[in-house]
Amino acid sequence: MKYAKKEGEPSPSFCVSDILEEEGGELPLSIGKKLTDYYYSLSINKKITLSFMLALSVLIILLAVIAFRISSGILIGKAIENTAQNLKLVSEKLEIIFDNAENYSKIAITNNTIQDVIGAPQSTNELENYNKYYATQESLRNIVDSKTFVDSLILYDLHDNIYDSGNLGNIRNVSDIYFKKFANSMYGVEWQNTHESNYLKGNDSRNVISLFQKFNSSKTGVPLGLLQLSIDERYIANQFSNIDIGTSGNIFIVNKNGIVASDTRKDKLYTSISNYDYFPWALDNEGGKVFRMDGQDYLVVSRSYPRFDWVIIGTVPIYEITKDNQVLTEKFIGIGALFVLAAVILTILISKSITRPLNVIKETVRDVQEGNLDVKLNIKSRDEIGALAKEFNKMVGNTKLLMNNIIEEQRQKREYELAVMQSQINPHFLYNTLESICGLADLKRNADVVKIVNQLAQFYRGVLSKGSAIITVEDEIVITQTYLEILKIRYGDQMTYAMDIDPVVFHYNTIKLLLQPIVENSIYHGLKNKRGKGHIDIAGRIVEDRLILSVSDNGVGIPKEKLETIFNPQDTNQDKNKNTGGFGLKVTDERIKLYFGQEYGLEIRSVYGEGMTVTIALPTIDKGGNAE
Fold this sequence. Notes:
Blueprint: H1 12-22, H2 29-41, H3 44-50, H4 52-109, H5 112-119, H6 126-145, E1 150-157, E2 162-164, E3 168-169, H7 176-181, E4 188-196, E5 200-201, E6 207-216, E7 223-232, H8 233-241, E8 250-254, E9 260-263, H9 278-284, E10 287-293, E11 296-305, E12 310-317, H10 318-369, H11 384-423, H12 427-442, H13 446-464, E13 470-472, H14 473-491, E14 495-501, E15 509-511, H15 515-527, E16 534-543, E17 546-553, H16 560-563, H17 572-577, H18 583-596, E18 601-607, E19 611-619
Parallel strand pairs: 14-16
Antiparallel strand pairs: 1-2, 1-7, 3-5, 4-6, 6-7, 8-9, 8-12, 10-11, 11-12, 13-15, 16-17, 17-19, 18-19
């Protein structure tokens, strides 16, 4: 854990000087001026010597703080270790319970009486049916009565008959969904997460975790029915109810959606913790971490329980872990305060002269660190600090000049690189189009030859754009539509497209060849490998003062692992040589950021096997060059 002095916290010297001023202590102006001049002429070494006592007092305070932080860290580490062991114990208990539950389920479905009764043919004799029900119930009751964690056993046969372990009422038949789920398998076992029971016991419903298991005849293998074994959630919660992790500490279980599946606090059951900051961390991590909740720090310890996709979580306030340490630290600080007070009083006259210029330098350096190179130090002293300030001002001036030169050189270099890369995006388009023209000529389709040549000429007329890299959205749409028309001649009715462009966006500026590489990517990496007809949708709108363009296709999409690497900062030539579908997208994104800023660019969404959508965010700059 990292700790730092709070921003704006006054130093001890300032506090004491304020006290002296309140008491009326004030040096004569003449003496104060002489002292000021004297201190301005002193060297840093002499000032450090005079302020030794102040440094000593600060070290005492730091020692107390560091000791508190270190000891608190040790206590928190021990708390994490102990809580993690407790959560491991809970996990092991749950594993034993659920393993035993599955074993008891197997015992029930292999019971000879149950096998004989359920496997016997249906009878219209009421007495015979009653005897069958009673025999089955007795068999189920014998299993439940001897196993305290089993709340109920319910059997559903294939004739909508229901047999239970006794003391159950208003049983709701929930077997259909599991009969369908297990229909194509010889065996079937499935656990259902915490839910309200489908029966009453003692006139009350309860929250249970249920096991559903398909069972067959042990003799013929023919399906006989479905067994439901339910465990009361309260029994699960009892496994960790007696574990002490602090007066206000709690242990509970949530599912992967953040819904509480088991908790000793029954009002929390089925509530959601998905909006808490620690939940995403708890899903992907095991161990402990400190989070801020409800105005105070909590230690959160988590452990996954894969069998149900559960996460077992323990939370305890940090103050409960460190309260004993706080008492010790307060006593330590009280003793150290006596030494601090003496040191502060002895060094009060020099503290301001030393800290004021240093604070000015600190704030100025911070401004420079944040990118403000227009700052200047105005320090009157003639000591080493004054000399440092002069050299610092020179350094900042030289740095500003050098940075401006570097930024301009890098911008021009990147423009040249992107221009070269952009020229390499679609060379095969021209080759393929010329081959198509030759093919159409051989087929005597002169009208199509004329059309495709005209479209090709119009495309490159738009691409040239009198050498300008910035064109209007309307011109870009014309280039893209011409490109698509050429491809339609080549591919015939195997490809269609539609445009839904709000006319208001036409007069805004964009970079040239923005949409064409994205459309080309959709065709050659999405539609080309698709069975059946391919379709592309191009849309344009103004959304919250941004120009939003989108290109969607119904192609094969992009796998998730490949989607995450498209914009990775890799060598562009390597990307190109790999002949991946991300080269054109990456270059287009970089061109947008170069011309309009880092807050603009591409966003890609894709469902593998269904298609891809590329969304383009641009500023609303009209063709006059004004941002709206």
